[in-house]
Design a protein that fits this description.
heterodimer, A: two-stranded parallel ribbon, 13 helices, B: MetI-like fold
Chain lengths: 284, 289
């Protein structure tokens, strides 16, 4: 969670207030009241195609899951079954609804941190790539203007935060005629000597221990602002289901979120409907 | 010798027909083949099961496809109506003796020579709810801002406006060519007979460029039915499929969800719609004389 220190100070908001769901919404209201006439919005709420990605952390922190393994699948024996419509999922979606009810409008366009760097939002939940939207020359002094909390807000202070891991997967197609050459290329691409400068340049976090520890880590720590805070979130990271049906599942969840955003359905109904469609997709 | 001469014209056509077969006929037949088999990103390397019309039934039973057809009707109807009317008015104005006509035509053509992707990205920024220039102007003038890209009732009109901006120059160019083909002496005779400018336009100009109008409307309709870059970039079809025309539905099934057979089936349904629409236009306009 990134915030402009001067704006929070002006609104007399203690950044710690942003760490809980209630405090986050109250702060957003205060910031909107103070800043809306200046074209600045309090907090950012993603309404773009990947809105489920920004909902999952709330689901996970409550103990919920997107999918769970179940037996007795008609074809596969044991396979994935939708679990996102649990009471945890409903509570997580209610938090998004509370934000909309508090006057925070979901944003259909997402500029990946540029909107924050342009000071159009006082607070934004965004990945470490947000740093790349600031000139490198400002990185050393960024901490004077921008605050960072390594968390998604939680229902209360005794609930642990979670976050979502993203990135890319390098794979070799079964039909590749030159698998050895591809393997060599992949090995070169992820070589710490080659990958570390790229991470350093873009503000991305290391995805392998040899870079996350030792000399390479010190190199990143000395360049990427807030590095140790960013790294502290890795153990809290969860990932999305790595199955071929996932894009369709995400589409169903996205539809459920939109139905709640636009007051078409209550969170439980929207998630139950999405889960039914998801069960069909998964062959149940 | 005589038989060679008989077939000679067909030999000249052979290169063009070969290209059409490779790039049009073969993909079409291949598409039909895929649509009747169970092919997805996960089964592409396995044996493809013949599933008869299952994919077509799935598409036709999908509520999101029904929504996308409704969106297509509004998108195509709005786009064609505004593109044609605006194009007709501007081409008629350009047909008058005005100074700097060639420069005006060149300027008007700019959207047509712009890439559809660039147009879509430009309108995405123009219509942005928070930072777009349209809402900035509205707020500056004291009006409330409009959720151009996130209100399910408004979003389709935002993509229509973008498509009209992008597509109207073609109609202008095409109808201008039609207007230039009319012999000016006809208007002089009509004037002598006492016809007003408006009467001349409706009873002389429009009938004389009828063939241009038919072709223009058929083309812009088919292009609008198939066009999906603008909604894909501007909204991704969101929110709630309110800006997902059938063409974007097809694209997403095949390339976003990896359901290649379902995508192919939607493509064939879309092609059938194109053919039906083209026939309706031709028959309707022929009946009108």
């Amino acid at each position: 969670m990134w915030y402009w220190k001067d704006l929070l100070q002006e609104a007399r908001i203690n950044p710690d207030n942003l760490t809980t769901w209630n405090g986050y919404i109250e702060s957003a209201k205060k910031l909107n009241d103070l800043l809306k006439d200046r074209g600045i919005q309090g907090v950012h709420l993603v309404g773009a195609a990947h809105s489920p990605d920004m909902w999952y952390p709330y689901l996970w922190m409550l103990g919920g899951q997107i999918l769970e393994q179940r037996d007795n699948h008609p074809v596969k024996g044991s396979y994935w079954y939708p679990a996102f419509n649990s009471s945890h999922g409903v509570k997580a979606l209610e938090f998004l609804k509370q934000q909309v009810d508090a006057g925070i409008s979901p944003k259909p366009n997402h500029f990946w941190g540029q909107e924050f760097a342009d000071k159009k939002f006082a607070v934004m939940l965004e990945g470490s790539w947000l740093l790349g939207t600031f000139p490198k020359s400002e990185w050393n002094s960024l901490d004077e203007r921008i605050g960072m909390l390594p968390l998604f807000p939680t229902p209360s202070s005794n609930v642990n935060t979670t976050t979502m891991m993203g990135g890319w997967i390098l794979s070799i197609p079964q039909t590749s005629p030159n698998k050895d050459l591809v393997w060599e290329l992949v090995t070169l691409m992820v070589d710490p000597e080659i990958l570390t400068p790229m991470l350093q340049q873009e503000g991305y976090l290391p995805t392998q221990k040899p870079i996350g520890e030792g000399n390479y880590s010190s190199q990143l720590n000395s360049t990427i602002p807030y590095y140790s805070k960013l790294i502290s979130m890795i153990p809290e990271g969860h990932s999305r289901p790595n199955i071929p049906e996932y894009p369709q599942i995400a589409e169903n969840i996205k539809q459920a979120i939109d139905e709640v955003f636009y007051n078409i359905k209550a969170p439980k109904q929207a998630l139950d409907d999405a889960a039914k469609k998801t069960a069909d997709i998964l062959g149940w | 010798m005589h038989s060679v001469a008989k077939y000679e014209p067909y030999l000249y056509l052979l290169p063009a027909i070969s290209i059409l077969c490779v790039f049009l006929l073969f993909p079409f037949i291949w598409n039909i083949y895929i649509s009747t088999h169970g092919v997805s990103i996960t089964t592409i390397l396995k044996e493809w099961e013949f599933v008869w019309f299952d994919n077509f039934i799935q598409v036709l039973n999908d509520p999101n496809f029904h929504t996308s057809i409704k969106v297509s009707i509004i998108f195509v109807g709005g786009s064609v109506a505004f593109q044609f009317l605006i194009g007709l008015v501007i081409s008629s104005l350009l047909n008058q003796n005005i100074k700097g006509k060639q420069i005006l035509i060149a300027l008007i053509m700019i959207p047509w020579i712009t890439s559809g992707l660039i147009a879509a990205f430009s309108f995405k920024f123009i219509f942005d709810n928070s930072f777009g220039i349209i809402n900035y102007i509205l707020e500056y003038l004291g009006f409330s801002s409009v959720a151009w890209l996130s209100d399910p009732k408004i979003v389709v009109w935002s993509i229509i406006i973008a498509n009209v901006w992008y597509g109207t120059p073609f109609t202008i160019l095409f109808l201008t060519a039609g207007l230039l083909s009319i012999n000016p002496s006809i208007y002089e005779s009509a004037k002598v007979d006492g016809a007003s400018k408006i009467k001349s336009f409706f009873y002389l100009t429009l009938p004389m460029i009828k063939s241009f109008i038919i072709i223009d409307i058929i083309l812009i309709t088919i292009w609008s039915i198939n066009f999906f870059e603008i909604p894909l970039i501007m909204t991704g079809g969101n929110p709630l499929f309110a800006s997902t025309p059938a063409s974007l539905y097809m694209y997403r099934q095949a390339f976003e969800f990896g359901l290649l057979s379902k995508g192919s089936a939607s493509g064939i349904i879309l092609l059938s719609i194109n053919i039906v629409v083209a026939f309706i236009y031709i028959i309707a306009l022929k009946r009108r004389g």
